Amino acid sequence: MFKNYVQIALQLLRKQKMFSLLNIFGLTVGVTCCLMIFLYVFNEFSYDNFHKNFRTIYRVMRVGNLNGQRVEIPYLSAPYATALLNDYPDAIRHAVRVMPDNDLIKYKNTFYNEKHIYLADSNFFQVFDFALLKGNPAEVLKEPGSIVLTESTAKKYFGNEDPIGKVMSFNQEKQLKVTGVARDVPANSHLSFDLIVPISNWENTFWFNQWPNNGMFVYVQLNPATDPEELNKRFPHFMDKYMGKFYAENGFKMELTINPLRNIYFETETPFDHVKHGNKKMVYIFMSIAVLILVIACINFINLATARATDRSKEVGLRKVLGAVRKQLLGQFILESFIYATISSLLAIGLLQLILPAYNRLIGYEMPPYWNNPLFYMLIGAVILIVGLLAGSYPAMLLSSFSPIESLKGKLKSGKNGAFFRKALVVFQFGISVLLIVCITIITSQMNYVKNKDLGFNKEQSMIVRLDNNAISEKKIQFKRELQRLPNVESVSLMSGEPGGFHDEYGFEVEARPNEKMMFNTEFADFEYAKTLGLKFIAGRDFSASFPTDSVRSVVINRSTASKLGYTPQQAIGKWIRNINDDSLRRTIIGVVEDYHFASLKEPINPLVISTNDDRRLALIKLRTSQLSSAVDKVKKAYISMAPAYPFEYEFLDDTFNQLYKRETNQELILGIFSTIAIFIACLGLFGLASYTAIKRAKEIGVRKVLGSSVNNIVVLLSKDLLKPVLLGTFIALPLGYYFMTKWLASFAYRISVQWWMFGLAVTAAVAIALVTVSLQAINAALANPVKSLRSE
Prior knowledge:
793 residues, 26 helices, 17% strand
């Protein structure tokens, strides 16, 4: 019997080629999208769980208060790890320090300024399970003069040569021997490195042993019996013991906490954390889209199957007369649905394999192999089961319920209930489609707003050169003077951080509140800072060489700082302020600049103090030429003359600022692609219904044409019934779109207002797409020769 059911299903596939192809194609595209999104979701939720002890590994975080908001900061100083091990031996089994760094690495004539170096403790490969291709995890970082490379980094320096035992130069200061080669870091790791160097090389330096010198991560592996919450409760005593005096002197206080390794990736991204982070909310959005696309594909199947119910009525009647019971008929029709789902899923797997390289480029990393992942096969099985039951159950129940007498007489009608159900499904389909159009319209508008908003400074033709090695850092003043001589350079400023980059936070004593210490973001820069960025002064003046004391006794603040101090910009001029950590003497406020976005637009503009000291981490070079390549070559020549051993690297300020929204931009693109696919699948079903309607009403159309109806009248006749549910679905989706997008926009401190035209555009697009889809088939039917349709009468 089962074999007979399969044969009938295959015969039906061959007999009704167009509808079968529409069903299979729609399901294949839907299943492919579902697989693509769920592979992405699997990877997002798998971050850091490849470590054997990931459940007991935690990252230690400092917790502070920034302008009334709780902020977790992962950077600690080296003494924390030693003190935690000493004070809590019952709770903490291991502690490992990881310090991100960039350094010049050289082997023979091959050298690179490596951006992804970790200085780490010797137990790094014992706490974390990054696979070693060569070397012993317990030994590779034991000696200070060792270095471990990833597989691709080893290939870059040594080609096919065995790197073990080879000696590499580190910043032209140390000679390090390769003791291990690690497999390239998995894409689902929040830590990412190319080289590991023992941090023990610096344990006798001054900066390494200073508690306030925070620049590294500290991870702890707890004993299995340790309760993390109980350990957190013990940290206030720890902070009072080691940092109490420092905090009392500097007027602020920080707490300590530990966060699970498995939660780090989905922690809220902040300017204080530079590891990989994801957005759990966006992952859930993509999961929802995957489900919706699959549901839309199933709706196509249900619509076409129920629309063709009357075509199979005689088959059902004959089978019932010959003794078939309803249970058997249900089994047959659901089996047909499973065959469609299985064929579509197999085709989807092949299609996924073809488009996977392009998909990897789109999401920005290579998806881990899925062929050996049992979850992938469970997903395929679940898709076949769900699609088979979801898409097959209603048509099966409808077809198996036909009366055999009415069926064989050919008097069976699908009835109003069947037509209503099909229209309800079209409402749902296009409701989803319009919702997606609204979302992508608002997201695109917000990202365009972010990219084009006036930031309060001029970021065009501004070149950044990092002072990230001793050679260029020691000659930064000569480098600046050399650049200022170039005709294509308008101005140059040396500073601690560019707009969009990191700005340190310091405690201040202020004249306005003598008994209170306040926390402000700080920019350390030279006299040309405001000029180079094009900042607007609203009170007072800029730093000037005409005032010798400006370099040590003056500061410039932004409008937000003046407001925080309780002054108008004019009132702030002449008041004093002192950086508790950096200055022994008070500085006078000599100028107030208009607020500018020195951080992402996701954050409000915070108070900022622009001060002068020797903290210079980059040179910002304002160019005044259309011949950028020529100007870059001249800057490069000046750089090489100062630091010939280091490769010249640069970036432009506008590109750097745009990187802040790279994740949102990628999400916008991916959402747009999947939204387009969802709309396409919905239109595919609408096209199938229009085709079926045209076939069933062929004789009616022939009669109308003979009686004088025009092509336009027939097109309107066939289109209006199918467009009504499209319009209804459209208007149901609008309030949902408004709700979801208002929630999404709330993550931006500076955002667009939701406008009526965004919804109007979505409605117009949906109706236009549906109208074109239906009209194409309606026009074909209206232009058909009526003689052919009436010949049998």
